């Protein structure tokens, strides 16, 4: 597995397995087990996904040595703040059945993220987390966090796919030593992404699927990707993306698909921010 080196020297797999929208415990556990069997070593979950326990059971059953794994989970808005973050971290750790995390992210850029970040800095400096980062922070908010804190986030996990390519944001992140990670690499299936003529044409040339082309496009750009599937065949298919390479012409053709607009969320829309803030979970 190819890796990227984070700003603190930690190696992170370039391709992982995500479990967003797999709330069914048995299905989640089986999917993670299959992903680990195939060879994935980065597993990405979140407190708000309500499946940390299932992920933890799969990790335990897999028999994969802990040092080979890269486990990520995330802090939800309702637990933002210094003490709540520390409590939420311990709860996630117990559910996952782990003694430490490889990466802990602030899931959404709202609430007391500065109190949360200070708590995460403490946990990081105590060796409880190998790296800390954020998710969904726009460049201005990220810069504010960097300027007013000690630890620069190692990762920013943001919506990144052929219709929202985040080229300028990736450049900004690289300039400040923050690794870009894609959520929603397949645009959550929107805009007929799997039947897009450009992507289908490139896939045909390489005798691959559209999913494989998208993941190869992301990883070839140095973007960490965490595709999700509950189908064993697709879990395996999504892992087979390092044995071919997209040409410069392929990359240029995909670049032309960029709309620079989200297909899912607008983090500057007050109505959306209000909706997120009111999302409470039995975590």
Brief rundown of the structure:
With 283 residues, this protein is of the alpha/beta class. It has eleven helices and ten strands. The two termini are 33 Å apart.
SSE topology:
Layout: E1 3-5, E2 11-13, E3 17-18, H1 25-38, E4 42-44, H2 52-62, E5 70-75, H3 82-96, E6 103-106, H4 113-125, E7 132-135, H5 139-147, E8 155-159, H6 167-175, E9 179-183, H7 197-206, H8 210-220, E10 224-225, H9 232-239, H10 248-255, H11 270-277
Parallel strand pairs: 3-4, 4-5, 5-6, 6-7, 7-8, 8-9, 9-10
Antiparallel strand pairs: 1-2
- Low-pLDDT runs of 5+ residues are none
Proportion of helical residues: 40-55%
Helical stretch tally: 11
Oligomer: single chain
What's the domain count?
1
The appropriate CATH architecture is Alpha-Beta Barrel
Alpha-carbon Rg, integer: 18 Å
Task: Assign the CATH superfamily.
Answer: NADP-dependent oxidoreductase domain
Number of strands: 10
Biggest sheet architecture? 8 strands, parallel
SSE run: EEEHEHEHEHEHEHEHHEHHH
Distance between the termini: 33 Å
Strand content: 5-15%
What is the spatial order of strands in the main beta sheet?
3-4-5-6-7-8-9-10
| Structural class category | alpha/beta
User: How confident is the prediction overall: mean pLDDT?
Assistant: 96
Overall shape: it is globular
- CATH class, named Alpha Beta
CATH topology: TIM Barrel
């Amino acid at each position: 597995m190819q890796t990227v080196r984070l700003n603190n020297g930690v190696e992170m797999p370039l391709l992982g397995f995500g479990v967003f929208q797999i709330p069914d415990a048995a299905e989640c556990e089986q999917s993670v087990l299959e992903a680990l069997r195939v060879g994935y070593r980065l597993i990405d979950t979140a407190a708000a996904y309500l499946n940390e326990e299932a992920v933890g059971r799969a990790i335990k059953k897999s028999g994969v040595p802990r040092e080979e794994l890269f486990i990520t989970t995330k802090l939800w808005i309702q637990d933002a703040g210094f003490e709540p973050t520390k409590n939420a971290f311990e709860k996630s750790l117990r559910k996952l059945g782990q003694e430490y995390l490889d990466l802990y992210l602030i899931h959404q850029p709202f609430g007391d993220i500065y109190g949360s970040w200070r708590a995460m800095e403490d946990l990081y400096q105590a060796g409880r987390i190998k790296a800390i980062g954020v998710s969904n922070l726009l460049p201005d908010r990220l810069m504010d966090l960097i300027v007013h804190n000690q630890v620069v986030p190692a990762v920013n996990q943001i919506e990144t796919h052929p219709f929202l390519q985040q080229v300028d944001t990736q450049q900004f992140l690289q300039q400040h030593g923050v690794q870009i990670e894609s959520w929603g690499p397949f645009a959550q299936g929107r805009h007929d992404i799997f039947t897009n003529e450009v992507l289908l044409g490139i896939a045909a040339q390489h005798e691959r699927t559209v999913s494989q082309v998208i993941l190869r496009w992301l990883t070839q750009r140095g973007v960490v990707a965490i595709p999700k599937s509950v189908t064993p065949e697709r879990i395996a298919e999504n892992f087979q993306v390092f044995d071919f390479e997209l040409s410069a012409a392929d990359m240029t053709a995909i670049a032309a698909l960029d709309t620079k607009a989200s297909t899912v969320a607008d983090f500057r829309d007050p109505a959306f921010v209000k909706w997120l803030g009111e999302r409470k979970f039995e975590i």
